[in-house]
Amino acid sequence: MKPTLVLVGRPNVGKSTLFNRLTRSRDAIVADIPGLTRDRHYGHGRLGDKPHLVVDTGGFEPAAKDGILHEMARQTLQAVDEADIVLFIVDGRQGLAAHDKIIAEQLRKTGRKILLVVNKTEGMARSVVTAEFHELGLGDPCAVSAVHGDNVSELVELALADFPEQQKEEEKDSHPKIAIVGRPNVGKSTLVNTLLGEERVIAFDEPGTTRDSIYIDFESAGRRYTLIDTAGLRRRGKVQEVIEKFSVVKTLQAVEDANVVVLVLDASNEISDQDAHIAGFILEAGRALVLVVNKWDGLDEYQRDNIKSEITRKLAFLLSFAKPHYISALRGSGMKGLLPSIDTAYAAAMAKLPTPKLTRTLLAAVEKQQPPHTGVSRPKLRYAHQGGSNPPLIVIHGSGLDHVAETYRRYLENTFRLAYHLEGTPLRVEFRSSSNPYAGKKPAPLSEAEAKQAHRRRRYGRKKYG
Question: Which pLDDT tens digit goes with each residue over 107-129?
């Protein structure tokens, strides 16, 4: 097992900056605003010779009794329970705070090994900046600058000194990455917790609770998955805070990074235009998709029929390949078929389609229904091959394919989808015409000598003038 380093401290001491430095990533949102990180955020350490896990946590408020701060503190304590080493981060520029003493006392009760890290010490004498932090009784403080990387490698070496070296595992990333997306407060974090069987992320009855995209590895029935809990996507006109704009970017990046996207809708509200916009972005990104209608348990039969008709009307462009699931993430009802649908969508998105089979399917489709004429000629479709995965791309070669009707493209998409059981993923068909590689290109102008030669050739014949 890789050793786990957990970053703990009060808000705005630089935990997320240090997390990004240790993982050599930009996975954690960083801004000069207290309380930005709320959930546990895991990453793979990339500094030093020993592989390790790094866990970023929210600002630790051990005295909070309720509300979002209490939930953040509970998440931090759960992370500390998983830790091999706790890196207690304090702010060298602000000095020792009363809050630091409360956190130190709380961490001491856990019995975990603690390293005291004094951050933001660039340009300062280490012995001077760390002097007052000896009062915490946690051993010699380690002065670092997460922003500039000063002394960070030495910190990792010190933290991992008692752990043996491990062989680096070159691991193929072949398991599904599943992004959970939707509008704010539709139950995304609750769905993540239900799938995991534990309260892994903060689920709070307040829109905008999740700010970052949280990657969580887990196993079910012997198979690995990575869940990505994302921030809610509101209409552009309502996104005003800078942090929320960062969150939107992180969500869109998570969709691009995923193999399968679970679009969560709120059955207690009508299907909105924003739901359709999010679905359109997922489709444009070409990601496999599973549709989840949450909070289904609170509706009567009339309301359920209304929601189903709204989905048929507003999200019809998804229903040709995406299967809807009607669930209650809070109560766990309707969850049984969700992971199998995700597996089916992932298999379809990553499917390998042999060229001979694709070509036979194409020719059979053409024999059944010829493409419509474009001008005086009919396009000729000769063979097909796979041009990519996630989503599957089928490239069709032939002549006169520059203006194949869109209706015929959809006919071929449906034909390939049915032939290869590509459920849960969009499918793209691309035409490449091989009739004339120079079509549409203007010839280069002839020189005076070339023009005279061409004139003689036309007048006297090729035999005499070539």
Answer: 888 888 999 999 999 988 888 99
Each residue of 327-337: b (16+ CB within 10 Å) or e? bbbbeeebbee
Beta bridge partners of 215: 228
- DSSP line for 358-416: HHHHHHHHHHHSPPPPBTTB--EEEEEEEEETTTTEEEEEEES-TT--HHHHHHHHHHH
The pLDDT tens digits of the residues spanning 182-229 come to 888 888 888 988 888 877 655 444 444 444 567 888 888 889 999 888
Alpha carbons 131 and 149: distance in angstroms, whole number? 21
pLDDT tens for each residue of 311-333: 999 998 888 898 899 999 888 89
Q: Longest C-alpha distance within the chain, in Å?
A: 105
Question: Do 124 and 199 fall within a single domain?
Answer: no
| E strand or H helix that includes residue 453 | helix 448-460
Q: Which two tokens stand for residue 101?
A: 């003493």
CA separation for the pair 55, 39 (Å, rounded):
10
Q: Which of 349, 379, 401 is the last residue of a domain?
A: 349
Domain ranges, residue 431: 352-466
Supply 69's token pair: 């701060």
Q: Band of the pLDDT at 456, cuts 50, 70, 90?
A: confident
Domain assignment present for 167: no
| Count of other CB atoms within 10 angstroms of residue 225 | 21
Q: Which of 159, 191, 208 is the last residue of a domain?
A: 159
- Which residue do the tokens 């490449």 mark? 432
